Structures are given as structure tokens and as C-alpha cells.
Amino acid sequence: MIKASIIGGSGYTGGELLRLLTAHPEVEVVQITSRKHLGEYAYQVHPNMRKQTTLKFTDPEMLEPADVLFLALPHGKAQHQINDWSGKAEYLIDLSADFRLRDPALYEKWYGSPHAAPDWLDKFVYGLPELHREALRSAKYVSGVGCNATATNLALLPLIKADLLDMDKPVICEIKTGSSEGGASENPGSHHPERSGVIRTYAPYGHRHTAEIIQEMGLSQVSLTMTSVDLVRGALATVHGYVKPGTALKDLWQAYRSVVADNPFLRIVKERRGIYRVPEPKILAGSNYADLGFDLDPETGHVIAISAIDNLMKGASGSAVQCMNLMLGFDETLGLEFSGLHPI
Amino acid sequence: MIKASIIGGSGYTGGELLRLLTAHPEVEVVQITSRKHLGEYAYQVHPNMRKQTTLKFTDPEMLEPADVLFLALPHGKAQHQINDWSGKAEYLIDLSADFRLRDPALYEKWYGSPHAAPDWLDKFVYGLPELHREALRSAKYVSGVGCNATATNLALLPLIKADLLDMDKPVICEIKTGSSEGGASENPGSHHPERSGVIRTYAPYGHRHTAEIIQEMGLSQVSLTMTSVDLVRGALATVHGYVKPGTALKDLWQAYRSVVADNPFLRIVKERRGIYRVPEPKILAGSNYADLGFDLDPETGHVIAISAIDNLMKGASGSAVQCMNLMLGFDETLGLEFSGLHPI
Amino acid sequence: MIKASIIGGSGYTGGELLRLLTAHPEVEVVQITSRKHLGEYAYQVHPNMRKQTTLKFTDPEMLEPADVLFLALPHGKAQHQINDWSGKAEYLIDLSADFRLRDPALYEKWYGSPHAAPDWLDKFVYGLPELHREALRSAKYVSGVGCNATATNLALLPLIKADLLDMDKPVICEIKTGSSEGGASENPGSHHPERSGVIRTYAPYGHRHTAEIIQEMGLSQVSLTMTSVDLVRGALATVHGYVKPGTALKDLWQAYRSVVADNPFLRIVKERRGIYRVPEPKILAGSNYADLGFDLDPETGHVIAISAIDNLMKGASGSAVQCMNLMLGFDETLGLEFSGLHPI
Amino acid sequence: MIKASIIGGSGYTGGELLRLLTAHPEVEVVQITSRKHLGEYAYQVHPNMRKQTTLKFTDPEMLEPADVLFLALPHGKAQHQINDWSGKAEYLIDLSADFRLRDPALYEKWYGSPHAAPDWLDKFVYGLPELHREALRSAKYVSGVGCNATATNLALLPLIKADLLDMDKPVICEIKTGSSEGGASENPGSHHPERSGVIRTYAPYGHRHTAEIIQEMGLSQVSLTMTSVDLVRGALATVHGYVKPGTALKDLWQAYRSVVADNPFLRIVKERRGIYRVPEPKILAGSNYADLGFDLDPETGHVIAISAIDNLMKGASGSAVQCMNLMLGFDETLGLEFSGLHPI
Lengths: 344, 344, 344, 344
Description:
Four copies of one chain form a homotetramer. Chain A is an alpha/beta fold.
């Protein structure tokens, strides 16, 4: 049993980590911190954890010894504290956006200010096992992933890996997301009467997760268009690009099958009949799967790659636990076996 | 054309008044006030009013002359300011809870503090036309109504009026409500990920609207149990009581038909087949109707009276405009003709 | 008062026509037909019409004299019956897809079979006033519009009219829709447990409404990608294209302002702050407005045009009534003044 | 490893059994039958089971040898086939309503026709471990439970067990349910545009599950009032009764604590602050917990007992697997450890 601590544990990402790690057969959660909820039981903030844990939120200044630290702090915090945190445990997984990008200039362009610890960027591995499995096995510092970037990157991965995508043409990523993506704190736009039933294209361009797609997929012309819809957990990426001349649908099948065969949490969803013909996030709530679909207009080469994930699982805490499994030498799927529910 | 002003116009009740009065053929809205949104266009807060009005929010201290003032302030404000407001217009309709109760002791019991202007309580007429139509025709001061009280009072009205209810037995009112009832300001419980999909019996007893049912229905043993569900607009009251011995279903039919015949915004919904057999709030969004249903267990005398309303219309602003129509001598239904939508 | 009849009145489009025409000050609805619901009151199928109409569904074979016939039949019916229907009233508005396209070859390509009455195609005017206002004023035969085509066409209209769009580059239309678009009949995919909370890109390409965009916007490279989301009424089109070199954001502002000034039911929604910054369908339920937004990436020329509508109003019955107003010489907005609700 | 088969596996109850048993460490699912979906992969009907199982639906006539049979057939089937099924495996759990009641007269009263196998009624144990744990340990035939009955019975259990409830006074059970309770087959009322956002008191009295409350709680005066709300999984029972004179809130605390201590899947939810103060079904999706709350009006003795469950888990398949664990001597909670999700 290894010991794990969750720093910044009152948000949705921290809660999901608590759920996963508490049920993980090789992990003992020794601490969860929250300044705001100091002294409260963790289950008072994460009510699904009643009868699952008796941990209370503690002060992040008073750290218990642990093997792995999960940092689930707001974006921009960890880069100022990394020298401290890095000394507290052998393994560190930071779920914020702070250490996802390798290039300080790319960070500054998309986040609007210089990175506070640029020397640390190279020490981190980008925490998506489907992209960096081998590097993760020997990593000590791992970043989290952006949920929208993850949906997009996994949609594109088979096309990129098989070199089927025309990289000179623009890639347009249309992402639809649920409300949990906005975090656990309320704001005027998350007020239920205002948020219920919305179809709100709130960011036509410029979403910060674009940087992770540029970095990981090697794309230059790529845009993310973000639309909020009425769901709590889940994100769907519908990605439009163009294949290289001569690419046929069977090439896509081969590319997707190959990637899915190598990755335990990827599935192809492309049925000819029935009502579950395409990837849909709703049945993925709580699961670590990414479901992938695709289609091709052979006349124009317009390819549509689709990926559905649970933004709190494969898009955040699930991938982080999967990374921990790789870093610590556990089975990659350990503690992540939940299949998701149907109906839901 | 009469001139109307809305004091405290940035909330949901104020927005609904703005919508109704702007479209009302006999009314010109001359002012809408909001300290918080001072100087903003009203349509920036009530986006359905784009191209409907060019009014901006103004300072409540700077009042335009008007014939009717609608006060849509937070509960507890108007009772401290009533001497001021009452001099500003010939007609005053206060939508808060401040002047709904006639008895200062009843107010203090349910609201937890003494009323600040007890002498004014007698000057107000309770603003539900189905209960006080004649008094409203000559009233200058009219109170609003509690939405949950209104759903319950209208469910019970036919039974009370026909003297069919056993007043010695307890009446249990189970009320299910949408999220707009909580007002336009966000709070942790209204955050979409927390509020979506809830079935939350948040108040087993003690809801303040109980006082209006006691007062208006003459009931002594009555309790309100409040459950939040996933809907924005709408409230359903399912009211359990006992009929007097000898009461048959046909007596109920007669009682309900009689009340519905007298009231343009009441309808009986009690079909034997199809999917619209009982009152449902969802099709009432934007309409001023209250739909009434009932059923009787002849063995036990257990009667269930059901009433569905739009909490912002018949439960607040719609009834207020209906009162204005009566006070000013307009047709009672003027400006309130919208039928509601299906599907929705 | 003119007399109007609704043929095929039990679906959602027919119900919306009944609602609008019943409340229309210049129209008397003399008949609504339904074979399936023959003899039932219209309000038993359209429950919002209780106390609004006492019409019963009648047999379409037994036609009352009327000035205007609205055909709200399933797609593919009217083209086989047009010779009959055309003789029954002076004005005919067909809401199906049968007479929207002028070119029989375009029809056959997108609908998969030859048109049954190709000679009639030229006699119809495409029923979107924003595109054909003048022709509609003298038309006797008017087609309906596809809801997704309408959202897209209105999003693009300002760009096309001001000749700002690079017509040689592909236009990708991402459309998100509510469940009422699928009609009033249930199917496995519309079962609530399966349909609630979905984000389902059910048609990556090939939606039939594409043909109306090709025809009306003169586009050749255009694709529609359809995604179902959790909402009943509403459609949002997020349209990706490229502007001609040298086009700046201020040119877009001018183009949109110009089109909005000419059309009573178009509005620009593009706010810098607040939560209502972009077009959203939810507040349009029941209204005939189309809200338009746009944004430009000046580096790449990537333009995103957004349009929100109520698919049953501007996308179907609302536009049909607006057409009737133009055909009959009424004020164009008559009977279509409902502003929509907020919150909803 | 024991072998289990699911007869009638294409519905929601069957799908949930498949999910639970596939992940159960002591069970191998050897067969799942469906005439309607014969030959299809189980994951085509239960899409959460992709990559979890490669079973196909088989013919119920062609039975594999198994230790436990789960019958998930429509109500009314099993009683005609029980002599056949009972010979096919050592253990049989029937999830339908057919063998829940011990008294044939009670069955006939609530189900409207005589039972087809009254001799079998005594051989079955009612499958709620919280009521019949010891009997289940040695049972061969176990019935399922009604979901609404279960929510109600668990709400009342502490009061009944501690003898605090005045059995001479009526007990009114107000139950709010999600849409999955209606099963996997669509109908006009389950069509998303009609079902979304409903608050529909569809059954004021007479719900068949009442019989299970009468039988298990020993109540004579009890009524169930059923209201559908917008949620897929979940049921909340808000139960109104009266305590015996002299009963105080602390007696209730003691009664609930005692029952919760004895039952691994019961929890008390009664917080003074925060937003998770009362039992709510949404966070129970996929979990086997029943969350219990209560409150007392000391003036009148009016007690409100609240219970939230996932209707497909504790209200159906979860309890069935819990019964299997007891029958087979496994740990009672085995395979049922999933905590539920938050947010959801």
C-alpha cells in the first residue's frame, strides 16, 4: 500500500481523486487538504463519500508523509510553489494547467503571462497515458491534462499516428461540455435557471486547451469552439479536418483499431444500427473510457473524428490515477474498472 | 394608457413584470429601477426583452411620475419604506411577502420578527383575484402572493368554497418546485452541477408560505413540505386532506366546475386517457393559468387536490398584473392571454 | 377575418400553428384535421390549448371552406396531393420539405427519390421572409423551411449579402438541436432515459437540410453536422467559414447591423460582459426571433457565425405565419409578438 | 466462481444485473437471454458494457447450466413458468412482482387477477436484506422488490422497528421518481419532449407497490402518491405519519442510528448546514445505498421520513445481488462497493 495525499481537495477534481484513491486497492489516502473547508469531514463536501472515508480536510501547511502528492489547486498556484511541493513526496502529479506545456513561450501566449517556473517545464511528463505511456513509467513529475484538449487529442490520435491527416489544412474542433467543467464554485452563469437547457457557444476561439493540442498533436492550424450544453459530466469533441489524398474509410478503420488495441481505455463506437451508434459522454459518467468515432466524406476528404469522455475522469482525475498506476508499476487499469451506467 | 414603474426590477419577478407590462395594451412602463444594474439596459439583464424595450435601469431614489408602482424588492424592505412608496403613485402593488398577512402576530410567528409597519397590514388586499376579486376592484394597495401558497390555495379553493373539506383533520401539502423560485441570485445550492437532477425535500415543515394558507383557507392544521426538482419555472402542489363524510366524487366535480366557471385563469385537468391527464406545470411556463385536478379515495375520504402553476406568473407577476387590471378597471385577462407552449 | 385550416394538425408543427393562428387577431381557425386523433378535442393533443379553442380534429377528406390552408403533413405526402390541395383555398403554405427546393435534381440528390410533382416546384416561394420578403407578398404557394437550414441561412445571410464570405472555402455548420425537432412520435432514441443528457453527433454529414443552404446561400462546399443535446425547443447553428482577404471585424458589424435593421425578427447578440453575450435558443422558446452573433479570427480569416432559433417558430410555424402575414397584406409581425421567457 | 444467468436481459433491470455480475469477483455470467435481441451483443443494448463482456443474447429456451438464475422478465410471466425455472438452477431470484407477496388475496387485490402459482408464494423470501437478512441466508427462492416500496419501507423501517409510529393514523407516502422506473420501452409519455421537465402526479392512489408496504411494514392505512420528475435514475420517498405520544426527536435519532448500524447500505443524512443536508437520489446513481432522513413536528407528532435510492440498484438489481451474496455465503457487500458519483 502506498500513501497518497490530495492537496486542494474540495473541488470536483479533488473529490474525484478522493473517490478513486479511496477505492484503489494499492493506495491509502492519508490526507486531503482544504483551507476553505478546514476541519470538515470530506464527505460533507463530497457527499458520495459518506461511509467511504472518515478523513477531514486539513491544512496544506501541515503535511503528512506520503509517497504521492496529487495537486488539485486552482490554475496558477502550483508553479509558484513547485519547489516546496516537489520535496514532499517521491511522486508528484499536478492536475492544474501549470505544467502541461513544455515551451514557456507557448504557455505565455495562451495563458497571458510568463510562466513562474519555466525551468520546471521540462521535468514534467504530459499526463495522458495514450500519448506518453513509456515516459510515464519512469516519471516522477506528471502534469494533468485539459479535459477539452484530451477529448480532442484522443479523437485525432489515430489520424495523426497513422499519418492520415492533412496537416496543412485547418482543424476545427467543436466541443460540447457539461457544467462540471466550470468547477465547484458557483457564478452567475452557473445559476441553475440560467444554465439549465443552454446551448451556449461561449468561446468561439481562444480556449486555453488549444495549446495542448498544438503541442501534443503537432498541429499549427487548430481552433477550439466551446459550447456549453445541459449535462453535468461529459465532453464531446467533434473534430473536423481533411485527410491526405487517397485516404479511404478502411484506412481510418485500421488507424482507429490499431490505437484502440494498444490502449485499454479507448473504444471505437461506430454501429450501423440501434441508438448507440456514436460516442456519447452520458454513459461514460464515472468511467475512464474515451469512446472514439469517425466518418469520412470521400468526395471532399472531410474527416470527422469524434471523442466522448467524462471530463472529470479521462479528462482529469481518471487519467491522473492511470498515470499513478504507470509511475508506481501497478496495473494500468487498477482502480479504474468502473464501467459507467446505463441508463443515466 | 396608464404609466407604471417597477421598483427593484433586476430579479425574476421584476423581469416578468417588465415583460408583461411592456406588452400590455393599456400600460406604458416609464421606469424600472435597480441599484445593482444602474445604467444598464434592462434587456442586458432580461435578455428576452431585446428589441422590446429601450429602458435602462435607474435609481429608485429618482422616481418618475406614475399611476401604478410595482414593488419587486427583496422581502423585508417594503415594510420599512411603505410610507414613502405609498405617496408616489395612486396604486401600489407590493410583490414581496411584507403585506400578505393581516395579523401581525401571524407575521411574527412565521417570519421570526415583528412587522415594521403593522398599521399598514389592514390597508392591503391579498392579491389573488380568485380569492378577493371584488375587494381588488376598489383597492389602492395590493400585496403579492407566495407562489407555493397560491398553488396550494387554488388546489383547495373548490373544496373550501363548497365546504367539503374536514377542517379538523390535518392537511398535508406536498409541493414540488423549479429553480426559479429561489430568485435570480446564485448560491451554492443553485450551482448547476448541484441543482441539476435533484429531488430534494429541503423543507419538511415550516415554509413561510404556510401562513398564507392558514389565513386564506382558514385552516389550522396544515403543513407544507417542499421538494426541489429539475425544472426552471413551475410549481405543483399535491394536497392531501379528508372530505366530510358522505362526500362523493361527483360533489368534487361540482365544486371544481363551479370555481373554474367563475375564474378565467382556472382550468380542470382530469382526463381518463392520453398523457395529459393531470395538471402539470411545464406547459404553463409564461401563462397565467392554474390547472386543477383532484381525486378521492371513497373508502377513506382521502382527497388529493392538485394544482399546477408557473410560479413567476400566477404565483407572482401574472397575478399582480391581473390585480392591476381589476384595480384599474381593465378587462381582467388583458395582457395575460399567452397560452403557454407545447412541447416545452 | 380570414379563415384558415390546418391539415395534419396533431404534430408539433401543427400544434404550434394552432396556437399562433388561434391568437392571431386577423385569423379564424375553422378546421384542424387529424386522422389519428379524429374526433378528439385539439386541446387533448395540444394541452396548452385548453380554454383556447373548442375545435375537434376532423377528417382531412371533409374540408371546410377556407382562405388559407396550412399543410403540416409528414414529408413526402404533399407532393402527391398538391393538385387536390391547391384547389381548396386561395393561399397554400406547405410546411413539409416537399416544395422547398426549386431544382428537381437537387431534391432527388438529397431526398433519395425523384420528386412526384416537379412542375410545381417553380410555383412555390421559399418561405423565409428574411430571404424572399417581396416575392412572398404576391405568392399564392409558399413552402416551409427546414429548421436547421434556417438557423444556418440566417447565420450566414449577413456575410453573403455583404459579399464577405470566401465562397471557395468550405463552410462547416455545426448544429445543436433539442428533441422537439424529431417530431411528436416517440421512438427508441427519444425515450427519456436514453435522450436525457445526450450529446449525440448523430449525423456527421448528409442532413437533408443541407440542400436548402446550397440553394438559398449559393454555397457549393457546405456540410451540416448535427448534434442532439438536452433541450426540447431550440436550435443553435455555429457556422465556420473564411472571409475574403481584407475583411475586418468592423465589416462584419456593418453587415450584421444592416441585415438586422431590415428584418423585424433578427437581433444581434454580441455583448462584452454579462452572461447573455451570445445567441442562445433557450430564451427564444415561443418567440419568432433569430438571434445572431459572430466573431472573426483576424489572423486566419476564420469567421464564426452563430444563430439561435426556436425550431418550431422561426424554424417552422412562426415563419409560416410570418409568410401568411406578408401574403395577406397584414403587418408582418402580427400574432408573432411574444417575446420569449426569461428565465426558462 | 459461481455461474449465473440472466433471463430477460434486455431491459434496464437486466442490464444492471449484467453490469454488477460481470464485475462481481465471485461470479461468472454464463448467459443472458433476450428473444427480441437474439444474437446481438449485450453491449449493443447496454452500451456501458462495451469492452466489459462479449456475451451475446441467447434464446431462453436454450439454457446453460448455472448455479443462480436471475429472472428479469416482465411482470406476470414468471408465475406461469415457475415450475420450469425452479428446476434449472439451485438458486433463483425473480426480480418481477410475481413472488413478492405472501398472501394470494393481497396479490389479487392489487394486481387485479388471481395469482397463477399461489402455492409458490410461501417458498419465496422477500428480497430486501434490511428486512429479511437471516431468512435470505438459507433461501433458495428470493423475490425482487418494488423500487417505490423499497424507498418507503426503508424510510419507515426505523420507526416501525422501534415501535414509534402510531399505526392507527394514516401514512401518506409521496414518491418522486425518475424515468428509468418506467422501463426500457418507449411510450407516448416517455417521449423526451413530453417527459423532460415534468412534475406529474400520475398516480394519486393505487400504485401496486402499496401492497409490499402493507405486507412488510404491517400497515393498514397507507397510500402511495406517485409523481414523475426530470431525472433518469432515482426515487425519493417523503413519508408522512404520526408518532406515538411522547416520542421526541432524540428517539428518532436513536431508532435511525440503530438500524443504520446494522445495515451496511443504509446511511443517515441529516446535516445542519451545507447543501447536502437531506437524502437525495442523484448522488446515488449506481450505488446500492439508501440514504435516510427524518424530521418531527413535536407539536403535532407529524413525522416525515425520507429515503433516497437508485431505483435500479437498491430498488431492484442491487438488492438482488445483495440477496445473492447472502444466499451464497459471500460478503454481503461484494460487488456492490461503488460509492456513486459527485457531481452528477
